[in-house]
Design a protein that fits this description.
The longest helix has 18 residues, at 17-34. This protein has one domain (35-41, 63-594): Methylamine Dehydrogenase, Chain H. Helices cover 6% and strands 36% of the residues. The strands form nine sheets. Strands 6, 7, 8, 9, 10, 11, 14 and 15 form an eight-stranded antiparallel beta sheet that branches. β20 (345-351) and β21 form a beta hairpin. By secondary structure, it is mainly β. α1 (2-10) packs across α2 (17-34). The radius of gyration is 22 Å and the shape is globular.
């Protein structure tokens, strides 16, 4: 009954204000009841059996394999103890970034690391891997000047001063770190000089660069998770918030002080000022935030922000003309699931999965629940379409990193999800859960529904790990996207599809000499239209390639339209498939690079 009343409130968003006040009071009361649940409790998501494919429809062959070891990606993730997680900070894991730090045309990989709570133990480093071509990588962390400076969490990429090279921002439990790219293969910690040093240490998770006022300079949003004090946090099993299915486990997030967001405005020289209060993004401390996902979700030309939140309502900040943000998650239908319940959100991804010209949002959640597909109906109005889209078939996995990608290049965005439990104790009990879990792969049928291909996805999908961050990108420039996944206590996975086929295009958009974060690209091939945006952040506290990949199916050419962040639109006709196009704002196509002929 509670859930149904709460769910109905969203649909009253256009009701008279007197009714809104009344129902708003009920909603706050019900919200208080919900947040009294112990962390990890199921939110009522029920698995729905998969629908069979329609007659005549055949799923593609897919064969993902993990080639990380032979590619040189051997750096081991460290996030607290490998066998027992005493505190929640040991469980959230880390993000990964795919970005071309030296502008040689080959995307590189950055892996964030945390540390160990034992101060006497050797502390790990982050890993920066330079792409040598042919899916081979070299560890250049030390050579690049990237030192381990704390307990790392997430990562996002953006060029803070339009000097033509992407800079690196790392969120941490402690002080965040900005590494400015020196354009010579090296980075320098310029956190303090650039105004990004926090007055006090905080636990930051997700981040994203975003030009919220469209002045041509990237601003920065940072998500904070828990106001965490190790010395004053209960031990496993000490309180009711530290129990899970009768087992004593680490405590949190419920029962721990929640946090809020920070927003930093760029002065045009790459220096930042905290304007969180001025742009109305700080808000009350009443949520546990993880991933920041940006995009123009209402098609008004201004980039908005969605925040996947753990065990509290998720947030949606509508950009009001580049002046401030308005949090309208409940009104937009993005705060809760279709039953009006909070979920334990982890990661988020955006794409126009059904081809209607609107960016939809997919959110990963805790175990004993479905992940959530929010279908965009236009005008800041979303519906929970998880069941309708065929994505309610799995509830036993705990999801983290996720991305839309077109693994068969048919022109429809598919979904990949990295999974892994937070409690190593699940392996010693009598539950069906496992700490290490396989990945999920959903094929987009092209009719608004997905089909679960996880079991047929190859060993790279079925191999079990306790995974966290995930990023996608065409690492060998051959027209097919790879996925890099962070595995707790292990080396990462590098998944490549040995059965990929179909035509595609890869587009890099540049403005003022840098990647045009926020630009929208529309591709039309054989009458089928696709949209996507250049995006910083997303997945689970991670960063995917800033170049956009479009599957074209059997089409040999496509028309391209780019809406730059200043609102100007440029069109390019009949671009041939099988190449990487670099397009500069006002300069046209500045580079054409044929795909690599590298074979898997």
């Amino acid at each position: 009954m509670i859930a149904k009343y709460a769910g109905g409130i969203r649909h009253l968003s256009k009701a008279p204000s007197s009714r809104l006040l009344f129902f708003g009071f009920i909603f706050l009361t019900l919200g208080g009841i919900q947040t009294a649940h112990a962390q990890g409790v199921a939110t009522g998501g029920t698995a729905v059996p998969a629908r069979p494919l329609p007659p005549g429809m055949k799923a593609p062959t897919v064969d993902y394999r993990d080639i990380a070891t032979e590619s040189g990606l051997i750096g081991v993730n460290v996030s607290g103890s490998d066998t027992s997680k005493q505190y929640i900070v040991e469980t959230t894991g880390n993000g990964v970034a795919i970005f071309d730090f030296d502008n040689d045309g080959l995307p590189d990989i950055f892996l964030v690391n945390s540390g160990r709570l034992d101060k006497d133990a050797a502390q790990p480093k982050h890993f920066l891997y330079h792409n040598l071509g042919g899916l081979k990588f070299e560890d250049v962390t030390d050579k690049a000047g990237i030192a381990s400076t704390g307990w790392g969490q997430g990562v996002c990429v953006g060029d803070i001063d339009n000097h033509g090279y992407p800079d690196l921002f790392i969120t941490q439990w402690g002080q965040n770190v900005l590494y400015r790219n020196l354009s010579n293969g090296k980075f320098r910690d310029e956190t303090k000089e650039r105004g990004l040093l926090s007055p006090k240490p905080r636990w930051s998770t997700g981040c994203a660069f975003i030009d919220f006022n469209r002045d041509g300079f990237l601003d920065l949003v940072v998500v904070h998770y828990v106001d965490f004090d190790l010395a004053h946090t209960p031990h496993p099993g000490q309180t009711s918030q530290c129990q899970w299915k009768g087992k004593p486990v680490m405590c949190g997030p419920r029962g721990l002080p929640p946090e809020t967001l920070s927003f930093y405005q760029n002065d045009g020289l790459g220096n930042f000022t905290d304007v969180s209060d001025q742009v109305h993004i700080s808000g009350p401390k009443n949520y546990y935030g993880f991933t920041a996902l940006t995009g123009d979700f209402d098609n008004d030309g201004w980039p908005d922000i969605f925040v996947a939140c753990d065990s509290t309502a998720s947030l949606y900040y509508h950009n009001v003309g580049g002046k401030l943000f308005e949090e309208v998650g409940v009104r937009a239908g993005l705060a809760y699931n279709e039953d009006g319940r909070e979920q334990a959100g982890m990661g988020a991804a955006a794409a126009d999965f059904d081809g209607d010209g609107l960016l939809d949002i997919f959110k990963t959640n805790f175990a004993d629940d479905t992940h959530t597909m929010y279908k965009n109906r236009g005008g800041d109005n979303f519906d929970d379409d998880t069941i309708g889209s065929g994505l309610a078939v799995n509830t036993k996995y705990l999801g983290w990193g996720t991305a839309f990608l077109d693994f068969d290049n048919d022109g429809w965005k598919d979904l990949i999800v990295a999974n892994g439990h937070v409690y190593p104790e699940v392996d010693t009990g009598h539950t069906a859960e496992k700490y290490k879990q396989p990945r999920l792969l959903y094929w987009n049928r092209g009719d608004g529904q997905f089909f679960d291909l996880s079991a047929q996805g190859g060993p790279g999908m079925s191999d079990a790990h306790s995974s966290r961050g995930l990023a996608v990108g065409d690492l060998d420039n051959n027209g097919n996207e790879e996925a890099v996944i962070v595995n707790m206590g292990e080396a990462p996975s590098l998944l490549t599809n040995f059965a990929a086929g179909g035509n595609s295009l890869l587009v890099r958009a540049l403005t003022s000499g840098r990647d045009a974060i926020g630009a929208r690209i529309t591709i039309t091939a054989d009458g089928h239209k696709q949209i996507d945006e250049v995006r910083s952040g997303g997945s689970y506290i991670s960063q995917s390639d800033l170049r956009l990949h479009f599957g074209l199916g059997k089409a040999s050419k496509a028309d391209i339209s780019i809406r730059w962040l200043d609102g100007k639109v440029e069109n390019f006709k009949s671009a041939a498939a099988g190449q990487i196009l670099t397009i500069g704002e006002g300069k046209g196509i500045v580079r054409r690079q044929p795909y690599s002929s590298a074979k898997k």
